[in-house]
DNA sequence: AAGTTACCGAATATATTGTACGGTAAAATT
DNA sequence: AATTTTACCGTACAATATATTCGGTAACTT
């Protein structure tokens, strides 16, 4: 990709993230974004069809990155289905958040946009699918598979949410322990 | 409240709900609402400051109503802290949704607005707080109280979500059973 | 019956979106 | 090194949406 393209794209993303920290998605205007990003209006629309697509692509960039990282390490060890042996991908993900990689925490903590969490959960769902066997023995009798799948994923999501909303006063390890206790 | 006021308010709510079934919140305009509600523009703004407040008040009306109903019956029996004896308020709530009371399902099923779920969960949180002792014995050692609280509430929320997203093919009783199994 | 209140309808100022165009500088191609 | 392509800027602009104002009318209240 052209360096100019990259620069504009980055500038827009960066301005957008900054704005998301201040106000909610729906009340952010394209005008504000391009002003902060210091790019022309036409440039914005050359990159992103709409404001919604901007959010979508930002999430994809960000979350795919995060999830690929947690995944990658596990995959590198060829341990997708035996996550127990190595560091749990869940704990791994929590550590990423703890370190605020890519400013992800800033975004997730905003009381702003639920859309963000939707994309986050979408990425998480995929991860859970791969690491599901981790908790297979805890699945009760008569529980539909898809329900269980969804339950784990949303339990983890809401644990993170609870963590962040509470100001992340506890270390990632604790949150992981709580998560393990209830699931 | 004046009958005229009530009529206008109802008309706006009704038009808004109908529109929410068709398209997502952000792409609904005030123009569409007042046209469908058949009220003047000034009237709309006399009732609601913005479109966001409209959603807010609608949710409050609706959810407070739903939660008060489920609650009311439990409270009527003076059984807030012994929900076990009577019909569980959770199951109760599921039945409300199953019957699509106040068109609540239509609203929750739209892939539209997460805001709706936020308000829903806010109402649920209060309910959980009252009925928490129901599951007290299942709380594991070393688990913070607030985490447990949040966990139950969001597990229930995501169970409903899973249910609705899947087309509500199972009866409310099943969903309640799954919920009981995992929590 | 008189006063108050909510409404309508239309006009309007303001803000936002998304597109179009000519000119310019950076990058790729020859 | 010269040429072509590409991305960009800035401005302008049409289309749409938001939110306010105001005079007149009908419905409620006292």
Descriptive notes:
2 copies of one chain form a homodimer. With 183 residues, the first copy, chain A, is an all-alpha fold. Chain A folds into 2 domains: 1-48, Homeodomain-like (Arc Repressor Mutant, subunit A, Orthogonal Bundle); 57-182. In chain A, 69% of the residues lie in helices and 0% in strands. Chain A contains 9 helices and no strands. In chain A, helix 1 (3-22) packs across helix 2 (30-37). Chain A starts with a helix and ends with a helix. The relative contact order of chain A is 0.11. Mean pLDDT of chain A is 84; it is low at 76-85. Chain A binds chain B through residues 26, 113-115, 117-118, 140, 142-144, 146-148, 150-151, 154-155, 157-159, 161-162, 166, 177-178, 181-183, and chain B through 26, 52, 114-115, 117-118, 140, 142-144, 146-148, 150-151, 154-155, 157-159, 161-162, 166, 177-178, 181-183. The first copy, chain A, binds a DNA duplex (30 and 30 nucleotides) through helix 1 and helix 3.
Describe the secondary structure blueprint for this structure.
The structure is a homodimer of 183-residue chains.
Chain A: H1 3-22, H2 30-37, H3 41-47, H4 51-76, H5 89-98, H6 104-109, H7 114-131, H8 145-165, H9 172-182
Helix pairs in contact in A: 1-2, 4-5, 4-7, 5-9, 7-8
Chain A binds a DNA duplex (30 and 30 nucleotides) through helix 1 and helix 3.
Helical residues, percent of chain A: 55-70%
Low-confidence stretches of chain A: 76-85
Chain pair with largest interface = A-B, 28 and 28 residues
Q: Assembly state here?
A: homodimer
**Terminus-to-terminus distance of chain A:** 44 Å
- Overall pLDDT confidence of chain A: 84
């Amino acid at each position: 990709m052209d360096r100019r393209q990259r620069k504009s794209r980055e500038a827009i993303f960066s301005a957008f993230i900054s704005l998301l920290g201040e106000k909610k998605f729906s009340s952010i205007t394209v005008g504000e974004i391009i002003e902060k990003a210091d790019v022309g209006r036409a440039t914005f629309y050359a990159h992103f069809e709409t404001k919604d697509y901007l959010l979508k692509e930002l999430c994809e960039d960000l979350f795919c990155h995060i999830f690929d990282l947690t995944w990658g390490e596990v995959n590198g060890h060829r341990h997708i289905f035996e996550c127990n042996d190595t560091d749990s991908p869940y704990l791994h993900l929590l550590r990423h958040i703890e370190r605020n990689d890519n400013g992800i925490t800033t975004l997730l903590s905003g009381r702003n946009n639920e859309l963000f969490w939707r994309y986050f959960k979408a990425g998480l769902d995929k991860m859970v699918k791969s690491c599901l066997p981790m908790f297979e023995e805890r699945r009760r009798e008569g529980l539909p598979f898809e329900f269980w799948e969804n339950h784990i994923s949303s339990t983890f999501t809401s644990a993170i949410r609870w963590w962040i909303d509470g100001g992340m006063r506890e270390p990632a390890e604790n949150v992981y322990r709580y998560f393990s206790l209830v699931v």
